[in-house]
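Anyone else keep sequences and C-alpha cells together like this?

Example one:
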Amino acid sequence: MYKKTVLDNSLRIVTERLPSRLVSIGIWVEIGSRDEDDCNNGTAHFVEHMFFKGTRLRSAQQIAKELDMLGGMSNAFTSAEHTCFYLTVIDDRLGAAVELLADLFLNSAFAPEEIDRERQVILQEIAMVEDTPDDLVHEMFSALYWRGHGLANPVLGRGEVVSALDCKRLTEFVRVNYRPERIVIAAAGNVDHRSFAELCRNRFKMAPPADERPPERRPPQPDSFGARRIVERSLEQAHTVMGTTGLPVDSPDRYKHLLLNSILGGNMSSRLFQEIREKRGLAYSVFSYLSTNSDSGYTGIYLGVDPGSWTQAVELIHKELAKLRLEGITEAELAGAAEYARGGIYLAAENMEVRMVSLAKNEFSFGRYLSIEELTDAIAGVRREGINELAGALFAEEHLPMCVVGPISAKLMNA
C-alpha cells in the first residue's frame, strides 16, 4: 500500500508497505552533476562521501560500526540529477536506521582532516575510470553528446576541482542546494506510514535558506551529430559508444522506447546481439541502453570488439539502425520484448531497494505512485505501429556521434 505525506517545510515522505521483514530507506536530494559548473564539478559527489565521515555526535569509525551493527546494507550514490543515501535493515531496526541517517544528513562535520583523506579516495576513484576503458568510453560519450551543458559533467568531477574543494565550499553547496522542497524520503517494505512519517517529522526539522536559491535547470539542446572523439590506447579491444536521440523520463512514448531498445540491443535475442555476436562472433559484448533525464535523453550503443573487426561491426550496427528506421519491427519481436519487460518488472518488484528507488524516482518525475499493474498495462498497450513511428524519428540521423578507446586510428574512425 502506497502513502505520501508532505511536511510543513515541503519535504516529501513516500512509503509502500509490502510483505517483508526488510525495510529499505532512502534520502533523496534533487541535486547532481548537471547542476554544477566548471568551478565546482564534483562537489555533489564529494558531499555524498563526506556524509559518512563524521558528525557532531559520531566519528567516522562510530558511524561505520553502527552501520555494521544494524545488520543490513548501506550505501550512497550520486548521478547527473540526484544524490541518494540509503539503508536496508530488518524491520525492528527501522527507528535506529532513521536516527542514524538523520544524523549523517543533518549534522555532518566536514572536518578538514577527513576532507583531505577522502579527497585522496575520490582522486583514486577518478583514476580508476581512466584505467577502465569500458567505463571511460561511456563518460567520454556523455561529455561529447551533452557538450556545452551541465549533463556533460562527469559525476566524480574533475581532478583539479576535487583537489581544491574545502570545508567552506562543501558546506556552502549543502546550504544552498539541500533544501527540503528538493528532498524525498522513501521507504519500502514492512513500514507503517504514520509512524515512519512521524519519525521523519521529528528528525528532519530543516528550513530552507531565505537568501539564496539554486539556479533552475535548463534543458539541453544537443548538437553533437557527426562528432567523433578517440583515445588511442594499446588494448586488446576497441571500446566504442555511439548514440542518437532519446526521450525524457516522463515522455508519453517511454514504453515504446523501452520495448524498442529491448528489440535493438537490450537482451540476448536482440538484433544487435544476434547479428554481431551470435551469427558472426565479432564481439563478446554489444548492447543498447537508454540514458534518460528529467528533460532529455539519448539512446546509446556499446561495442567491445577486436580492432580488426571494428569496421565490420560498426557497419552492422548502422545497418540494423537503418532496418529499424525503414522496415520497423515484427509482431513477434514486439510480443517477445513485452514479455521480457513484464518479467523484468515482476522480478524487480521482489527487491526492496528497487521498490524504494522506484518510489523516489516516480515522486520526482510524476509526483505520484506508479503501480506494477499500471506499468504492465502500459507495456501491453504498446502497438507495433507506434514503435515503428518512434524508430523512424529517433534513428533518422545517419551520422551518429561516437567515442572510441582503443587501438583505432582517427583516420579509420572518420572513414
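And example two:
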Amino acid sequence: MKKMLLRIAFMILTLMTLWYLDGVMCVKDEHGINQAQAMYYQPRDTIDVVMLGSSHIDCDIDTGLLWKDFGIAAFDYCAAEQPLWNTYYYLREFCKYQSPKVVVLDLFSPARFKEDYQYDYLRHNLYGMRFSLNKLEMLMVSAEPERVLDFFPGFAYYHERFDSLTMEDLVYPFTVHRKSLSNKGFTPYLKVAAQNEPTIDQKYSGGLTVKSEVYLSRIIEYTKEHDMELFLIVTPYITVAEDELVYNRVREIAAMNDIEFNSTNFDYDEIGLDFHTDFNDDSHLNYWGARKFTDYLGKELKERFEIPDRRGDERYESWEVHYREIAEYVKANSM
C-alpha cells in the first residue's frame, strides 16, 4: 500500500511539474497565441459574435467598446496573417465551446497572401490552440509533410525561450485564468503614423487562390449548417488594386450565397477616419482609429442582425472588466 501511494504521489508530482513547466515555457504574444488561449477561459455559450481573421481583427475591433456602447458580447479570435484554412479550423474549435449567433470574417489575408503554405506566422496560429484532432488537421493542411515536425509538438520549440524568461512567465500558470477571462482579444496600439488615403478604382474581380476559395466555401457551409449568420468584412487600411481584385471576387461569392459583405474601405468618411491620426501603420488602425471603426461596426451589426444586449447580466461581468482594463492601459501608456 505504501509503494502504491508513493507511485501515485510521484505521478501527481510529475504531472503537476509538466503542467507548470508548460505554462512557464509556452510562447505568449498578442499576435494570436494569447487570443486563442483566452478563448478556452470564456464562460461557455456567452459569446454572441466571434470575429475571425487576421491581425486586422484584434487591432481594429475594440471588443470593450462593443460591450460598453452596444452590449455586444464579442470576441476577437484571430491571428496574424491568418489564411482561410486556419480560420476554418479556428471556427470549428470555437464552436466546441461557444454558440455564436454571428460570425464576422475579415478577408485581408486571402487578398494579400497567395501561397498555399504560409509559414511566417504559422506558429502564432497554432500554439494557442489546445491539442486535439482539429488542431492536427489544421496543421496538416498548413504545412507540407516534410515540415510538419518543424511545428509539432509545440513544446519542442519552447527550449529557445530559456534565455528570455521573465517573472511574468514564472507566475503565468497561476494567473492565466484571471487574465484570460477578461481578455476578449482586442490589442490597442498607441502609435500614430500618418497615411495617404488610397484611391479605389479596381473594376475587375479575381485573384482569390483555389485553396482560399475552397476554404471560404467550407466556412460558408459550416455557418449555414450551424445556423450562424456570416458577415464578410474588410476593415479600413491602405488598400491596393491587387487586394481590391480579390474583394470584388468575394463580393460575387457573397451575392451567390446570400451573405452580407461590407468592404469598409469605401466608408472612410462615414467611419470618420483621419488619415493623419488614426493609423498605427499602413495596415492597422491605432486605438483611436479602432474606436471610430468599432462604433461604425457596432451600428452595422445591430442593424443587420438580431444581437442581444447583455449589459446587466452578471454572467458577462468579465466584459465590463475587459472594458476597464483597456481604458486603464491606454491611460497609463498614452503620452
